[in-house]
Amino acid sequence: MVKRYAVLWLPFLLTDWYTKHNPQLADIPVVFAMPVRGRMCVTAVNPSAAQYGVTPNMVVADARAAIPQLEVLQDKPLRKERLLKSMGLWCMRYTPMVSVDTAGYLILDITGCAHLWGGEETYLQEIHLQLKQRGYEVRIGIASTIGAAWAIARYGQHGTIIRDNAQQEILSIMPIACLRLESDLLERLKKLGFRTVASVMQIPPQVLKRRFGEDLIKRVRQALGKEEEFIAPLKPVIPYAERLPCLEPIKTAKGIEMAIEKLLDMLCKRLIGEGKGLRKAKLSCYRVDGKVKYIEIGTNRASAHVKHLAGLFKQKIPTIAPGWGIEVFVLEAPKVEDAVPVQELLWSGEGSLDNDALAELLDRFKGRDVTCRINRFLPDEHYWPERSIKLAGCLTEKRTTAWRTDRPRPTRLLDPPHPIEVSAPIPDYPPMLFRYKEKVHLIKKADGPERIEREWWIEQGEHRDYYYVEDDKGRRYWLFRLGHYQGDRSSNWYLHGFFA
């Protein structure tokens, strides 16, 4: 697939942003300024100030001489960069690959995206319209190279779309400044009579390199598509993602549900074709007011079952506030695993961890209630009780060691152990009774002690002497004394677990 790029130039980004919040300044010459080497210099201008010839980097005193009524606002370090980044994040509704050029440009990799809006012309018009409605002046160019798109956005006619392999014809008549050269090099070229890109392309590359260095040749080759250029996206690109622009803003739960089903259908077809399933999915809802709402789901095993995944999302639709409407939906699967098909038995009457129905049931429980926690545990190679089990990452994770069966272990382990008061006769004897939550438990049966030493290579501390006890109501507990017996010190006794 041929690469396609869109470059957005926002010449009055900072002042447009400020005027949007202060509309009374719309027709007044306004500049932002900050100290540079002891002098106040202009950092940004609005269209009214630009008409008088005021430009960035001009000394404020000179600007005031040209415009006595000039409104000067104090700029802040990195304000423009932060604003440009926020604009880049806003543009991610149109493509997942957006890069920021601190000079005031946004670079969008639109490969495979424009057709969702009906083509590049409609795509460009939509971006321009949305930014214009938000109060920003923008110039956009589209081409097969970043350099050509940048040249059109900065020095060409707004909205120009350069078809593939037409870069040389269009760029040749454009000014030499469209090659994104350093100011010193640009001045040297102008002094020598180079005015257009064509005047540079007529000179042999070896001569240009010898006279002007590698950068000039590099920029020409990048603009013509003879040398590849890469961008650094604002966010890592998720390989498995689908997006759905809406003809009209979606405001209803039913509309959101239909959008989710369509996105899942597209995504799952791709996953099934590659033998994969998703473990995590994230839906981003881009509202017409510029805000973004998110919902996420997770599964216990890799799944590409559209109906099941749609049901998980449906449980969370009420948490989405559509506001004035949602214009773009983006579905991403940040965690994807191989989906191993399970062979069904002819008579499948028993539950199994490989059972898809069980995994989907657990997913629904988890999605319905955020406080619901259904966990699966596996044995771990440790003696210390708290470390002898670990939380399984998924239903299909296999254990690396066997469960311990030579000694009884509780079905529920308290973490941390709960201090209790006990009455014990002599050392190494189990307690006769203990008090837990203001209730006294009389012990009728007991077994122990079982001494468990600290894992000295992990931590230091005293050993534990465990007792398996049963009270007069038939309830069974796992108690321990911390360290050696030292008289009647009830604070050294703890309840650590319950048996079924």
Secondary-structure map with pairings?
Layout: E1 5-9, H1 13-21, E2 30-36, E3 39-45, H2 47-50, H3 60-66, E4 71-74, H4 79-91, E5 97-101, E6 105-109, H5 120-133, E7 139-143, H6 146-155, H7 167-171, H8 183-191, H9 197-201, H10 205-212, H11 214-224, E8 241-250, H12 253-273, E9 276-287, E10 292-303, H13 306-314, E11 326-338, H14 356-368, E12 377-379, E13 389-391, E14 412-419, E15 421-423, E16 433-436, E17 439-452, E18 464-471, E19 476-482, E20 493-498
Parallel strand pairs: 2-4
Antiparallel strand pairs: 1-6, 1-7, 2-3, 5-6, 8-11, 9-10, 9-11, 12-13, 14-20, 15-16, 16-17, 17-18, 18-19, 19-20
Helix pairs in contact: 6-11, 10-11, 12-13, 13-14
Rg over alpha carbons: 34 Å
Query: First CA to last CA: what distance?
Result: 62 Å
Shape: elongated
Number of strands: 20
The level-1 CATH class of the largest domain: Alpha Beta
Q: Quick one: biggest sheet?
A: 7 strands, antiparallel
Note the beta-strand portion. Answer: 25-35%
Instruction: Classify the fold: give the CATH topology of the largest domain.
Output: Alpha-Beta Plaits
Structural class: alpha+beta
Mean pLDDT: 88
Give me the CATH architecture of the largest domain, please: 2-Layer Sandwich
Domain count, please report it.
Answer: 3
How many helices does DSSP assign?
14
Widest beta sheet: strand line-up: 14-20-19-18-17-16-15
Flag low-confidence runs: 344-349
